Amino acid sequence: MSAEEAQTKRAFITGAARGLGEGIARRLAQDGWSVLMTDANPAIHETAAAIIDELGLSSERIIAVEHDVASAEVTEAVVSLGIARFGGLDLAVANAGIGGVEVDLVDLDIADFEEIVNVNYRGVFLTCKYAGRVMREQGRGNIITVSSIFGQEPYPRVAAYSGSKAGVIALTLAFALEMAPHNVRVNSIAPGYMATEMQWAGLRQRAAHAGISFEEEVQRVWDLVPLGRHGTPEEMGALVAFLASDEAAYITGATLGLAGGVVRR
Q1: In angstroms, how far is CA 234 from the centroid of its own chain?
Q2: pLDDT for the residue 221
Q3: What is the rounded distance in angstroms from the CA atom of residue 141 to the CA atom of residue 248?
Q4: Whole-angstrom Cα distance, residue 96 to residue 145?
Q5: Which helix (H) or strand (E) holds 92?
Q6: In sequence order, what are the beta bridge partners of 120?
Q7: What is the sign, positive or negative, of the torsion defined by CA atoms of 242, 248, 253, 256?
């Protein structure tokens, strides 16, 4: 893809204030995309400004919006804003997610369960729904959901999180079949242990539960991962860039692992 062609590409990314979403936004911006970045965290504005400054971009290329992904009205309005500003939508990345408290399912508060499902599953559904409508009308587009290895191999004390991510994987496959006749590809990325604040928070909870230090828990994870380390937001951005490219034109309905070999399927 030429630089001129890349500049016509328009992306919408949820959960982009920090971590994997920030890595995705930065990579797409580097590749010449116009990017609508959203997050419930007000830091989204700071992150967008940093990307603009670091890459020397026009402020017209990067839009930052605070966004509750569980709200249908807000999500529909955010997608409409992207269309109004960019003139279309080529890629939507349903990345926003939360880990939630780590506790046995029988002890999980109903409010905590509902928050996990609202962000991790309802939020993906709404992003797919409203971005998908635009792409179906256009007759082209690309949607990427972010699931998890815990949706493929559920883990104790995160049953609600695992269930929400398993739901995302199933939703992605069904949605891919619906959208294929409209020239819209739909895939999911299942990250494993990634170097993000959400991961560090989870490891701190697990370390406390096991009665070991945070450093010992990090080492335990590295011992589990065949590649022996955490993944990075930059590697997540690279995988999204590939899936959004013409080089991945025959890939739809897939869940691609980004896990250093932890889940082998």
Answers
A1: 13
A2: 95
A3: 12
A4: 9
A5: strand 91-94
A6: none
A7: negative
What backbone torsions phi and psi does residue 196 show, to the nearest 5 degrees? -135, 165
Backbone angles phi, psi at 98, to 5 degrees: -130, 155
Residues pairing with 34 in the sheet: 10
Whether the predicted model's global pTM rises above the 0.90 cut: yes
- Rounded CA-CA distance 178/192 in Å is 28
The per-residue pLDDT for range 158-177, each reduced to its tens digit, is 999 999 999 999 999 999 99
Helices 44-55, 19-30: axis angle to 10 degrees equals 30
DSSP string, 242-263: HHTSGGGTT--S-EEEESTTSS
Helix (H, G, I), strand (E, B) or coil at 157: coil
CA nearest to 11, candidates 122, 131, 190, 125: 131
Tokens representing 94 are 């349903």
Q: What six digits make up the tokens of 5?
A: 């062609």
Residues of the chain with pLDDT under 50: 1-6
Distance between CA 249 and CA 256 in Å, rounded? 15
Residue 265 class from Cβ within 10 Å (0-12 exposed, 13-18 middle, 19+ buried)? Answer: exposed
Within 8 A by CB and 6+ apart from 203, the residues are 214, 217, 218, 221
Catalytically active residues are 161
**What are the tokens at 245?**
């490219």
H or E stretch including 185? Answer: strand 184-191
The structure tokens 């955490």 sit at: 230
pLDDT for position 263: 83
Contact 108, 59 (CB under 8 A): no
Please report the pLDDT score of residue 264 as a whole number.
64
What is the rounded end-to-end Cα distance, in angstroms, of the chain? 31
